[in-house]
Amino acid sequence: MYIGWRSTDLLVFHWIEYCNLTALVFRPTMPLPEWLLYSLPDGCWVYATTSWMLLIWKRFVPWVWVGLILAVVAEYGQLFGFVQGTFQTLDVLFYVGGFVLAGIFNEKTPLVHTRNAGDGLLGVG
Question: Least crowded by CB within 10 Å, which of 64, 80, 107, 120?
């Protein structure tokens, strides 16, 4: 989504140009809804980070919350002008949704249950 639909002012396009890969970039003309273009990738980032942490520690430990906390703090940092960008409530909802979905999907993964089979979603039996 970043390469296909987002602004070519993004840093990734400088990297693509530097690596002489511009000819490989396909930019569709079909418009996408703003929530899909801007909020969904953020929620996917929190989902991936949370899933990664759950796969490493195989249960809910304090580190599992890092992705969600960083994302929410950065978003509110935008609201108060500490972080460059525009605060979006929808982004926060996608962060929380990504975190919850990662907890749900990874809770059912055998890898999560190998160490503490009796633990529930929050790591308590």
Answer: 80
